[in-house]
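User: I've been trying to design a sequence by hand for this structure and keep getting stuck. Would you show me what you'd pick, starting by listing the structure so we're on the same page?

Assistant: Good idea, let's start from the same input. This is the structure you sent:
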């Protein structure tokens, strides 16, 4: 059985009850085969920023990160979110180990170039990383001994500088490096929605640009789709964006599967 990479949005880990539910689903998925988990924590980061008097800023769904924001990201993700979720998985019967991208350079990144936005402008995202020559050996070592690596989406450059890495981007990158059999991106929405708010059951990677340009895909979905497309292009055979809310089995969650055919494939769901 090949490796599955699961990305969990921070909205699925906002409190202990949510963590327990996600932990149960993670343990069930890990029972099927090797599993690597990447998590974000956007809402918790935003809340902590506001308590520090800092207004969160985003461009096309990507967080603009100055040093104060990065310090907050590290404290929230690598601190209470990662540790709390690892503890929840342990309580659910799994054997998890908490990591960040700085551990074993699994999130080795370079400073992201200015972003060309959907609006055609150039935006400097600040201390944001783009994963590059990652070593996957630490992760393969852990899964071979039956552990579930749980990775907070923080990167590091070759000089040891920490960088904020979008969790969708990191998960897609690791799925590519690990030659994963499957990438599941779980969040608060039931997949990719069309302009009437219905879930698209299957979506071609060739349709992503049109959805973004038309505004049907917006905010965080822009970065999510771009990351998933990179995973598809790298040869990950099964890529899906699903709802992680009130779900016991991520394999059966409502959502959207990305396919290689042309255009939006029919078969919309609720």
């Amino acid at each position: 059985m090949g490796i599955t990479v699961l990305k969990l949005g921070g909205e699925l880990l906002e409190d202990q009850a949510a963590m327990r539910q996600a932990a149960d689903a993670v343990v069930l998925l890990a029972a099927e085969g090797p599993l690597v988990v990447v998590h974000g924590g956007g809402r918790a980061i935003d809340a902590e920023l506001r308590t520090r008097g800092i207004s969160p800023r985003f461009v096309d769904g990507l967080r603009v990160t100055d040093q104060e924001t990065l310090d907050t990201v590290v404290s929230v993700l690598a601190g209470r979110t990662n540790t709390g979720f690892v503890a929840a998985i342990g309580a659910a019967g799994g054997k998890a180990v908490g990591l960040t991208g700085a551990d074993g350079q699994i999130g080795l990144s370079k400073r992201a170039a200015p972003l060309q936005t959907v609006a055609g402008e150039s935006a400097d995202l600040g201390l944001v990383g783009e994963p590059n020559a990652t070593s996957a050996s630490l992760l393969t070592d852990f899964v071979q001994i039956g552990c579930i690596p749980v990775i907070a989406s923080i990167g590091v450059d070759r000089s040891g500088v920490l960088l904020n890495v979008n969790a969708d981007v990191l998960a897609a990158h690791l799925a590519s490096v690990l030659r994963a059999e499957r990438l599941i991106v779980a969040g608060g929405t039931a997949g990719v929605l069309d302009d009437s708010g219905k879930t698209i059951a299957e979506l071609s990677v060739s349709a992503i640009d049109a959805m973004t340009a038309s505004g049907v895909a917006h905010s965080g979905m822009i970065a999510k789709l771009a990351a998933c497309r990179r995973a598809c292009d790298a040869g990950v055979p099964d890529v899906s964006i699903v709802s992680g809310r009130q779900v016991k089995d991520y394999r059966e969650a409502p959502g959207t599967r990305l396919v290689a055919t042309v255009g939006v494939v029919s078969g919309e769901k609720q």
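That's my pick for every position. To get oriented when you compare it with your attempt: The radius of gyration is 17 Å. DSSP finds seven helices and 17 strands in the chain.
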